[in-house]
Amino acid sequence: MPAGGLVPTGVAKERAELYQGRVTLYVVIACIVAAVGGSIFGYDIGISGGVTSMDGFLREFFHSVYISKQHAHENNYCKYDNQGLAAFTSSLYFAGLVASLVASPITRKYGRRTSIICGGFSFLVGATVNAAAQNLAMLLFGRIMLGVGIGFGNQAVPLYLSEMAPTHLRGALNMMFQLATTLGIFTANMVNYGTQKLEPWGWRLSLGLAAIPATLMTVGGCLLPETPNSLIEMGSKERGRKVLERIRGTDKVDAEFEDMVDASELANSIKHPFRNILKKRNRPQLVMAICMPTFQILTGINSILFYAPVLFQSMGFGGNASLYSSAVTGAVLAGSTFISIAAVDRLGRRVLLISGGIQMIICQVIVAIILGVKFGDNQELSKGYSILVVIVICLFVLAFGWSWGPLGWTVPSEIFPLEIRSAGQSITVAVNLLFTFIIAQCFLAMLCHFKFGIFLFFASWITVMTIFVYFFLPETKGVPIEEIIFLWRKHWFWKKIIPEYPQVDDSHNV
Asked: Residues 68, 207: contact at Cβ < 8 Å?
């Protein structure tokens, strides 16, 4: 590539119509094994809320919360407002944020598999330490190791799935990550429902069982093939072509292989991808890498999933009833992901995001009205209204499960050209974990001070993000991952910002 020459970012021309191949059993199995990495993320989200509502856990580590929980006349919204308890939940996500930035150069230099293996092993260590914790320091160290595992896993798995999947099924196969996440949440909820009866040590079993998905992720990572894109980027073109032929089920992969080689040549000419992603020509991808994960968390879903048992207990549900209700929401979330898998490559990303957003807004407003009118400081919801709240929250979770849940990961993982793909995914994960950390740390205090207004707070953000998608996100359905760069040049807004042919300077540090 001549220094100072004018070249397009990524591939030089559109040739998607020349792609050949079929969905092979090999690629499906590889994607299923890789997606298990999502289950560690989901298991932790689901397990945390249940554990923090268990008396045995609170007595041992957060005695003041246990005492306030017993006060019959405590403000309903403030029973669990304790920053130490919030730190137990949120410390993992801060560690994951830092780990995701470290994982980016590792994922780029040593491949997607290496990061998957590192993530699984770290999560395995964290699960073991947490199950054996004797003091708060051990508990927090275990959470940090879990966070490192999630940082590496969330960095590598969505990239792996996007690069292995054939173009026409990329959305569905990429959503295997979200499906594994939701199944992890549901499994965790069911585990909590069983272990809360095993006082006072049931919480140890809940935390320790995280070792199972961690082991599957580690072993699976050792057995997986590396992606063709990553092999080519690391200089193994022949191995990359062989893997591509194997996962496509044909040796007629010239067009797709040439796209990967073109993208790899530019990727290897760029020594500082994080500096490169700030360039004007990558502005739309950078905006999406920041906005999509931010909006995903600001739906309020993590607050409901983290603290579902706490939330339902605050509303007057008994311990068993609250865990049962949160298990139901976990089941709904897992089931709704199948809707998205079936529809994403037929209806497209935008339709699902917009329709899901509208349904979530309606549900948040309904819950806020019910709690505002019928739920005071010393009151409990009647049985009828309690059931109605659970139903509406399930409808909210259903909408999230077919829209922002899976697509909040799918869209960012498929929009970056190869030269900044690892850096872009790292930013996506870091932003997701940053806002997850903020919400996890602040939610109990927000619930105490905002009361029912917390649901209106999240509804307002869902309104903003739905409008954002309508105006600024192009449809990526059916577009090869190496040719999505052309979408930005055709979009009514982004084509005004990005130059058609970016300048490559002599330093190759663009």
From this structure: no
